[in-house]
Design a protein that fits this description.
Number of domains: 2
CATH class of the largest domain: Alpha Beta
Radius of gyration: 20 Å
CATH topology of the largest domain: Rossmann fold
Strand order of the largest sheet: 3-2-1-4-5
Structural class: alpha/beta
Largest sheet: 5 strands, parallel
Length: 210
């Protein structure tokens, strides 16, 4: 390999390592993740309504709810128990041949004391756009104000996806990445979530899905 090429490669590696080191410092030692999650969450007004829409997130291979779905279920139960909602819609399909995320979340929510008769399912969607598209018919049969609950970092894309297909919702994010950003052990996973979500937001804008 020519000396000039070796020198250019070494310089590129140095630049990359310097940038990586700076990123580590910024994520670890500044409130960047918290600020970023707040920006993606949008207005924080905690509205009440008639129908609470809770979006599924991750799932395990055996059909159990994943970490993000678990957190959304927990906050969904807390919000529903405030007594301001009559119905709850869970949206999320299967990541394989097992039960859907919505079904797994329903079972967990019933264990948390949410009445089974108040829970409606949308068990087919595989992404945020499909959450909105596939929930539309069910929501048309549920009168009243709709409130959308999902993770703080997910709200910007989810809210716009629902509005894009003609579903009027009030956003109700909960502190997911914001809360995890407060702990060193969970700050980097939260950073990866807000980073991936920002890329997904740009993709949805490009596809005109939001």
């Amino acid at each position: 390999m020519p000396k000039g090429t070796v020198g250019s490669l070494a310089y590129a590696v140095q630049r990359f390592l310097a940038a990586l080191g700076l990123l580590v410092i910024v994520v670890t030692a500044t409130p960047l993740v918290r600020w970023w999650a707040f920006a993606l969450a949008g207005p924080w007004e905690d509205p009440g309504g008639d129908v609470l829409i809770v979006l599924g997130g991750s799932a395990e291979d055996d059909g159990a709810i994943g970490e993000s779905s678990f957190r959304r279920s927990q906050y969904g139960a807390l919000v529903f128990k405030e007594g301001r909602f009559k119905e709850m819609l869970l949206s999320g399909g299967s990541n394989g041949g097992g039960p859907s995320i919505a079904e797994a979340m329903r079972d967990y929510l019933i264990c948390l004391g949410i009445p089974a008769q108040a829970i409606h399912l949308e068990p087919y969607s595989r992404n945020t756009r499909e959450n909105a598209l596939f929930a539309k018919d069910t929501l048309a049969g549920l009168p009243g104000t709709k409130v959308l609950l999902t993770s703080d970092y997910h709200m910007a894309r989810a809210y716009r996806a629902f509005r894009k297909v003609g579903i009027v919702v009030q956003p109700r994010p909960f502190p997911d990445a914001i809360k995890r950003a407060g702990s060193f052990a969970t700050r980097w996973p939260a950073f990866l979530d807000v980073g991936r979500e920002t890329i997904a937001l740009g993709y949805y804008f490009a596809r005109r899905w939001i």
